[in-house]
């Protein structure tokens, strides 16, 4: 499938792009604002647009409505950290093909997108169930208390998109030790992948605040996660797909 990703969390988009491209799909562009979502679809005419429903500058549902009206051949799929049956119902009524949660496994998101591309839809408690979300989501205080300071430092680096090798080098620990940290973080957050752990961290900024700043490796050119203008191919994705 040819895809456009729209979410104000660019790192999340780049990580998801990495997974999608690993499964043979093509990510044409990334938009990080509601205002850029429709122009990105207009420019690239994708098979599908994966779209968050909340942006700092406006509503993703308004963008979805405009895309469905102006570009009916592009399937719109909502991907949100919110379990909102009312928003899911509104999206379905306007012709959106699916409403998925960001806490789903990355490979599940890919499978559902492929089913939607083949003409299916993805709605209902299996994908939007509010009760399941509330029962499974730990409290902010519980998450903060579960992670050690060292694990929170690793989580911050996961959110920044660093590879296992880079984290191990900068933190001066063995790669095997670093992988143990990551395994513990995923278990404590109830996450199945780095992508999911980063999505949880993005909902709870307190999980990664207060740690030491991430310093670049000597000789490096700067921090990861540089921007991509609308209509331009996204940069090589960050390595969140690692386990």
What does this 3D model show about the protein?
The protein has helices at residues 10-22, 34-44, 60-70, 85-93, 106-117, 125-128, 130-136, 140-146, 149-159, 164-171, 175-189, 194-203; strands at residues 2-6, 26-31, 48-51, 54-55, 58-59, 75-80, 98-101. Strands 2-1-3-6-7 form a five-stranded parallel beta sheet, sandwiched between helices. Strands 4-5 form a two-stranded antiparallel ribbon. By secondary structure, the protein is of the alpha/beta class. The longest helix has 15 residues, at 175-189. Helix 9 (149-159) packs across helix 12 and helix 10 crosses helix 11. The model is unreliable at 129-139 and 210-243 (pLDDT under 50). The chain has two domains: 2-133, Response regulator (Rossmann fold, 3-Layer(aba) Sandwich); 140-207, Winged helix-like DNA-binding domain superfamily/Winged helix DNA-binding domain (Arc Repressor Mutant, subunit A, Orthogonal Bundle), CATH 1.10.10. The chain is elongated and about 55 Å long.
- Which shape, going by the Cα principal axes? elongated
Number of domains: 2
What is the H-and-E element order?
EHEHEEEHEHEHHHHHHHH
Major sheet size, sense and barrel closure: 5 strands, parallel
The CATH topology annotation of the largest domain reads as Rossmann fold
Helix percentage range:
40-55%
β-strand percent reads: 5-15%
Poorly predicted runs of 5 or more residues: 129-139, 210-243
């Amino acid at each position: 499938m040819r895809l456009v990703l729209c979410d104000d969390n660019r790192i999340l988009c780049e990580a998801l792009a990495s997974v999608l491209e690993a499964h043979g799909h093509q990510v044409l562009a990334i938009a990080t604002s509601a205002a850029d979502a429709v122009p990105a679809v207009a420019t690239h005419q994708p098979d599908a647009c994966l779209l968050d429903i909340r942006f700092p500058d406006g509503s993703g549902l308004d963008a979805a409505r405009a895309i469905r009206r102006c570009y009916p051949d592009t399937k719109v799929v909502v991907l949100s950290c919110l379990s909102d049956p009312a928003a899911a119902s509104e999206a379905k009524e306007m012709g959106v093909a699916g409403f998925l949660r960001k806490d789903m496994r990355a490979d599940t998101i890919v499978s559902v997108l492929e089913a939607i591309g083949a003409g299916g839809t993805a709605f209902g408690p299996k994908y939007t169930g509010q009760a399941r979300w509330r029962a499974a989501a730990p409290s902010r205080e519980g998450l903060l208390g579960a992670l050690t300071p060292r694990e929170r430092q690793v989580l911050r680096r996961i959110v920044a998109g660093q590879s296992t090798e880079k984290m191990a080098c900068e933190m001066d620990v063995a790669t095997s030790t670093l992988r143990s940290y990551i395994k513990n973080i995923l278990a404590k957050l109830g996450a199945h992948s780095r992508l999911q752990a980063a999505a949880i961290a993005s909902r709870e900024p307190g999980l990664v605040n207060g740690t030491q700043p991430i310093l670049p490796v000597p000789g490096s050119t700067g921090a990861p996660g540089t921007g991509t203008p609308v209509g331009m191919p996204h940069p090589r994705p960050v390595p969140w797909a690692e386990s």
